[in-house]
Amino acid sequence: MFGSWWKLGMDATLLAIESQQVIALRLAKLATGGAAAQAEAQHMVTEKIMAAQEAALLIATGGSTAGVVAGYRRKVRANARRLSQG
């Protein structure tokens, strides 16, 4: 009965934790400056716009909050992996 609510709560909590990791990794990369930092800044802005558009489309077509959170988590986890590698 509460399984879907529990999963949504856990996914939202994990999204918050994973997002903090990505923020820390990005800040470290941006602090170094240079071409890599500029590319990361552009990537960050572009990806945020695309993610917001995808979330809006999902909601507009009858998607769930859980689907939106899952989509954001996929992107955040991918960023954490990419930024952790260098």
Task: Describe the protein's architecture and organization.
This protein is mainly α. The protein has one domain. It contains 3 helices and no strands. It has helices at 3-32, 34-60, 65-84. Helix 1 (3-32) packs antiparallel against helix 2 and helix 2 runs antiparallel to helix 3 (65-84). The radius of gyration is 15 Å and the shape is flat. The protein starts with a helix and ends with a helix. The mean pLDDT is 95.
Looking at this protein, list some descriptive labels.
single chain, 86 residues, mainly alpha
SSE blueprint and pairings:
Elements: H1 3-32, H2 34-60, H3 65-84
Helix pairs in contact: 1-2, 1-3, 2-3
Task: Give a short account of the largest sheet.
Answer: none
Summed up, the domain count is: 1
Instruction: Write the H/E string, N to C.
Output: HHH
Integer-rounded radius of gyration: 15 Å
| Count of strand segments | 0
What percentage of amino acids are in beta strands?
Answer: under 5%
Low-pLDDT windows of residues? none
Brief rundown of the structure:
It contains 3 helices and no strands.
